[in-house]
Structure formats: C-alpha cells, structure tokens
Amino acid sequence: MKRILSFLPIVLIALTLCGCVFGKYCKNADGTIPEATARRYVHDHTGVDTTGAAAVKAFDTHGGFHGDGETVIGLVLAEGAETSVTENERFLPLPLDGELETVMYGGKGCGYEFAKKHGIPLPENGCYYFKNRQDGGESLLTAYSFNFTYAVFDSDSRTLWYYEIDT
After folding, report:
1. Preceding amide of 95 cis, omega within 30
2. Does 9 reside within a domain?
3. Looking at the domain assignment, is residue 6 inside a domain?
4. Confidence (pTM)
5. Which terminal CB of the chain, N or C, has fewer other CB atoms within 10 Å?
C-alpha cells in the first residue's frame, strides 16, 4: 500500500506535464502564451493565416474548476496575410453593431468594456468576427454570463486582435 501511495504524486505530476507537453495549446505558468501557440490558436479559431505573424500581446487566464477566464492575443500579420482576413466569410466589415460595441468598448448603461480594458483598439478600417457561444442566444446586454469570441482586424496596421471570454 505504501508503494502505491508513494507513486501517486509521481503519476499526478506526469499527467500534468503530459497535458502541457502534448496538449495542443500550452501557456506559461504566468498565463502568457508562447508566440507559436498564439498563432496556432488564432488560426484554429478564425481560419486566418497567421504564418509569420508577430505577437504583440498573448495571455490566457482560463483555469479553475469551470474554466472561466479570458484570452487576449494581438498579432501583427505578415505582409500579404491580410487577405486571409478580408476574404474570410466569418469576418464582417466594420462598424460593429451597437450592442457588441457597447459590451466591448463601453457605452450608455454598460460598464463591461472588455476590449478597452485590455487595450484592444476599435479600428477605423477593417473587419470583425463575433461568435456567441452562450446557450440561449440572448442579448449580450442582458446575458447572465458571457461565453463569446471576438476578433477585430485593423487593416491600416495589419493587426488582428483576438478576445475570448468564458464566465
């Protein structure tokens, strides 16, 4: 019995390491995301060509029992990669619809400002992607929790900002 109990911590540590080493997406202990992982994550979730993109910001606070948290990734796309955004059917031309802009950047009666809080700009020229992963599809302004993905592309600076929240 003692032998079994002495191996239990080793097995648990090994399983934890396997999750990070062999997992598809891995973050550092401080929540930052390695650049290659950030590029792969954004590509897998938006379909944008992120090959050769440079990360300007990449962190993830998801964790805990329910996996709540936020992911913020800013990528400057390589020359020519902007067509993978502008020609992507998932992205819509700016401006944002009023409800989404209010939740992301603030407005009358709304104090969320998710994008503004993380320094994600609202560009004048570009396009955006939004996917509400919340069951029920209620309005963002009256939702009891948030589970959505938002991305905005600034065509002037070739910067793609990716934001994900789960509450």
Report:
1. yes
2. no
3. no
4. 0.83
5. N
> Which structural domain, as residue segments, surrounds residue 79?
25-166
Percent of the chain as helix, strand, coil, to the nearest 5: 30, 25, 45
What are 101-113's pLDDT values in tens digits?
A: 999 998 877 778 9
What is the strand order of the sheet 69-76 is part of? 54-60, 69-76, 159-166, 147-154, 126-132, 92-93
**Region at 50 (left for phi over 0; alpha for psi -120 to 50; beta for the rest):** alpha
pLDDT at 141 exceeding the cut of 70: yes
Helices (H) and strands (E) in the chain, counts: 5, 6
Q: What is the pLDDT of residue 11?
A: 44
Which helix (H) or strand (E) covers residue 14, if one does?
helix 2-21
* Maximal C-alpha separation, the chain: 66
The token pair at 99 is 């409800």
Q: Is residue 7 part of a domain?
A: no
Residue 146 lies in a domain: yes
Residue 133 has a pLDDT of: 87
Q: Domain tally for the chain?
A: 1
Angle at 140 between CA 151 and CA 63, to 5 degrees: 65
**Which DSSP string corresponds to 24-74?**
SS---TTSB--HHHHHHHHHHHH----TT-EEEEEEE--BTTTTBEEEEEE
For the chain, the average pLDDT equals 86
